[in-house]
Hints:
Chain A: Keywords: Lyase. The complex is a heterotrimer. By secondary structure, chain A is α+β, with helices and mostly antiparallel strands. Among the domains of chain A are: 12-82, no CATH class; 96-119 and 153-167 and 182-323, no CATH class. Chain A has helices at 8-24, 34-40, 42-51, 57-66, 71-82, 156-162, 190-198, 202-213, 282-295, 311-317, 320-328, 335-360, and strands at residues 100-105, 221-235, 244-258, 271-278. Chain A has a four-stranded antiparallel beta sheet. In chain A, a hairpin with an 8-residue loop joins strand 2 and strand 3 (244-258). In chain A, helix 8 packs across helix 9 (282-295). The longest helix of chain A has 26 residues, at 335-360. The model of chain A is unreliable at 1-5 (pLDDT under 50). By secondary structure, chain B is an alpha/beta fold. Chain B contains ten helices and ten strands. In chain B, strand 4 (59-64) and strand 5 form a beta hairpin. In chain B, helix 5 (118-131) packs across helix 6 (148-160) and helix 6 (148-160) packs parallel to helix 7. The longest helix of chain B has 18 residues, at 178-195. In chain B, 46% of the residues are buried. The model of chain B has no long low-confidence stretch (mean pLDDT 90). Chain C is α/β, with parallel strands linked by helices. Chain C has two domains: 23-233, Rossmann fold (3-Layer(aba) Sandwich); 245-294, no CATH class. Helices cover 28% and strands 17% of the residues of chain C. Chain C is built from seven helices and twelve strands. In chain C, helix 1 (23-38) crosses helix 2. The longest helix of chain C has 16 residues, at 23-38. The termini of chain C are far apart. The mean pLDDT of chain C is 92. Chains in contact: A-C, B-C. Chains B and C meet through helix 2, helix 4 and helix 5 of B and helix 5 of C.
Amino acid sequence: MYVAVKGGERAISAAHAWLDETRRGDPAVPELTVAQIEQQMGLAVDRVMAEGSCHDRFLAALAIKQAKGDLIEAAFLLRAYRTTLPRFGASEPLETTAMRLRRRISATYKDLPGGQVLGPTFDYTHRLLDFALAAEGSECPAAPEAASPVADVPRVTELLAREGLMQREATSEAEPGDLTRQPLTFPAERPVRLQNLARGDEGFLLALGYSTQRGYGNAHPFVGEIRVGHIAVEFTPPELGFPIELGEIGITECQMVNQFKGSRTEPAQFTRGYGLVFGHGERRAMSMALVDRGLRARELDEDITAPAQDEEFVLYHSDNIEATGFVEHLKLPHYVDFQSELENLRTIRRTAEQARQEAAE
Amino acid sequence: MTTPLLKATGLNLRFGAIPALVDVAIDVAAGEVVAIVGESGSGKTTLLRVLSGMMAPDAGDVLWLGQDVLAMGEAARRRLMRTEWGYVHQNPRDGLRLGVSAGGNVGERLMAVGARHYGNIRAEALSWLAKVEIDASRIDDLPRTFSGGMQQRLQIARTLVTHPKLVFMDEPTGGLDVSVQARLLDLIRSLSRELGLSVLIVTHDIAAARLLADRILVMRRGQVVEQGLTDRVLDDPQHPYTQLLVSSVLAA
Amino acid sequence: MTITVVPPAPSTLEGYNFAYLDEATKRMIRRALLKAVAIPGHQIPFGAREMPLPYGWGTGGIQVTASILGPTDTLKVIDQGADDTTNAISIRRFFTRVAGVATTEHTAEATVVQTRHRIPERTLREDQIIVYQVPQPEPLFRLEPRRMETKRLHALADYGLMHVRLYEDIARLGHIAKAYDYPVMVNRRYLMSPSPIPAFDNPKMHRMPALQLFGAGREKRIYAIPPYTEVRSLDFEDHPFRPIRAPHACALCGSRDTYLDEVITDDAGGRLFVCSDTDFCAERQADSAKEAAE
């Protein structure tokens, strides 16, 4: 005799206990510390901070540990935590020319004020598995240090803008929208689009950015500049009326230079795609800049023909917390609607069968 | 004399430096077929879009039965567009739902105005397919399986099913073969007479205008350079541009 | 004039507000709910928050429930009509942890019922509220995925397209093929998705004495049906709406007029049908046992 699926509560508890056990893995292997993740899985921490839209290396590392290394799950944990935090206000805008740079490269000029600073990068490494890393306890020699880069590092796009070759961004004193407080509405203005992209799924942004290079969106991008480093965040408490420094955060900024053929009202000039993300995330910042430029099609009066130019498509599907929830919800029971479909299908087949028999008679 | 259904005066519109409409006035009486002819870029399609409320002019008035079309809200204009007006696009793909059966395409306008009896909707769709010479067996087929001429006839059926008073047609025979064009023109002529329709048709085809229209307006660079009864304009053109248009057809 | 300040009820989970959401968020959601009640069936955008449960797993319903719940409420949570499905248990446990409210499996005892995919068989009363979890609030989304366009269609009440879809079903299949999430017209104005309840449940929405609230977290929309509002399933005069259910009796309580789940009992075609509303079924079984004993 059929017994209704009972004991769900016990099953859930047992499943979660098992999850904890598998997270720990073989007890003979030493447990990973949050500090180790934070220090040695730094790029994973950066990605979780970006997609979790919360800059806190310790919490991101903790989330990675709790999520067993599933970075989307970790970003979800961080997001769910951050929504419960009280909100004091918004920081002053970041002035990225004042960044403490670790890396700064331009693909448009061989040399330029501030110079090219390679920094800690995978670029030009040969992707050969390094079996020396498998041996623990090996000493890592300190990297040679050069004189720190000059203080004044102007933006490449600014150099172009002074010549009139780079379109100036529209300035506005209006308070930008806040995606974490107001729902997305369309048409979406650029600040809201950039917020959405800054925490969008890296794989999604990468694929879309890539598609613009392959003819889906007609982009002709150059990396004007990528900067990676640290920057002070300032906040003006209403009681004080002047900004105070809260601390430093790590960011990556990418400015893409794109061709623009001009319109009735504007002369031909370059236009900008912009990317700014938490932590060291060049791939993410570059992809974001490509997609940002794609999404400017409407305001630049370009034909909207490609997925990366379609703002409803891009902005509604970029968030991996939303996406993973909805894709994975298909695991939940759907037997009520499925039953309705079953009965419906049986009726339709019966109707068709009757019609066929009547036709045969 | 009866008041015209549609009456427009003083229409002006510029695209940047380019004048698209210059002091255009036009009216259409009940049951009248009016053709707007001119070469491409003369402003005739723009005029059609302004008259049908799809585009706002810089200045001027458009009145439908005395009502100001340009001051109407979008809801009222859409209601007008699915009841008293019809619009036949040059490309049938713009006027049809290609993923919906022929019957569904014809039925949509009926359902949009409240028809809720499946059998009646279907009967009406069948009768309209017959009127536009599409075989009843094709009622459940998708229009993408139809030839260009059939698609255009289906678009006409879909537009006329709610018995509009005025139909805007934008180069309805545009992309079709000459033999198919002739058949379609015959169909438009007989349906408009039978139903007492008013038609405002934009075309660059002088022969089509001669066959269908009671009156002709000739446009050039946004201006109406000549207008009058079809026979008069085509047989005795006054304006040099009209003379050129007419002679170029004869020469062809 | 005196102003009574009601302090928020204490939460049972350290560090979190009563019912998880902070009071400002609850106020924002309640404002959206009031708007939704004022315009029955119309979708109101709201600033949905990230919840500690995944999007698509009931975050919209949870936020609505959290905003209307008071300490004296009694909450019932069902998924697929049952109180004991894993997601229903998980959501019920969430509210026990963060709000400490009383919970029940009995529809009659609940003041708030949060549901996924079903409406209880027992008729709801005026003093009850039903909260639906909604995955996709836009009834037109399969016909038109763009929100900018569907918003216009709603504003103009331009719903011919939905009827075309039903026409196409009948033309091709002889029946309207929609079996769940069957679109309804609310108060003769707004086309609305009833959430993926089986079409069988649609008639229960019509003039329901209880307030019906709908929350879509991922899509960030709230909508509502006030008590006793007209809710009509779309159909044709000559192809009237049919509530679909399996043509069987419940193997446990014998009911012939409730919605049934089909259960496969072996791999030789064996199957039986049981009530999807577990509370209703258990009560019927208890009643008949009592009658038998008397």
